Amino acid sequence: MDKEIFLALIEAWGFPVPKGCNVETLFQNGFPAWVETENAFVVKPINEGDSLGIKIVHGLDRLSSVLNTIPLSDRWRWRLEEFVVGPFGTVAVLDLFGELVVGDVVVFDLPQGFEFYDDRLKLHQVEERAAPRVLSGHVATQIAEDAKKLYRHFHCKGIVRYDFISGQNGHVYLETNTIPGFYPGSNAATCFEKYVSFEDLMAVTIYAQLAERPSQRGQSVGVWERVKIVFWT
Question: Degrees (nearest 5) of the Cα angle 116, 123, 149?
């Protein structure tokens, strides 16, 4: 998934995103004005998953040094962003025959010594753990509604996850995971774990892709209700 294209599209649609630009343009046009006002930055590949390759850089001098290590032929696939302080969050959406079911909006509180939710935490490569916490209130409601809109805008299928940072000045969206990691304890499963087991979530996801649409079968009961009847009664 190309983060550069995703962010350009959703910013044009009016969704909040972090300030940023492609690294290649920096060497052509110089630093944009917003860079001068920031103290910390994110340098990230535009097409990697699990936060692989992300670097948090403090200070303009250090930023210039890091950018200069990127080979000329590779600069187009790296993005520079402002470092938004706040917990990483995610929300999963599942399409059940046109009815979008949104899981919990979850944020992760980082253990001491970690600046962001990196691949070591996501892939459990270290002893420390990022603690998931369900977000509630107006912000969670807005993010859930945004997730449904984005799902439809991108014509997604199956279970999809949208990642964001809940910053001091509001949330910003980072990327969409159209094929998210899907295993017990994965972020997509965590969004639904309060409601269904992982095994049932997997079954529902497959069922929604293979079964006929309710309108074709004359069903009057709500889709989510019908799925619960099929799997949990």
Answer: 65
Instruction: Give the tens place of pLDDT for each residue, 133-153.
Output: 999 999 999 999 999 999 999
Handedness of CA 26, 28, 31, 32 (dihedral sign): negative
CA 187 – CA 39 distance, rounded (Å): 30
One-letter amino acid of 28: Q
149-185 pLDDT tens trace = 999 999 998 899 999 998 888 899 999 998 888 889 8
Give residue for tokens 């696939």: 77
d(CA 86, CA 133): 13
Task: Work out the number of other CB atoms within 10 angstroms of the CB of residue 6.
Answer: 20
Whole-prediction pTM value?
0.85
SS3 172: strand
Q: Does the pLDDT at position 230 exceed 70? A: no
- Beta strand 55-58 with 78-82: parallel, antiparallel or unpaired? unpaired
C-alpha to C-alpha distance for 53 and 231, rounded to whole angstroms: 40
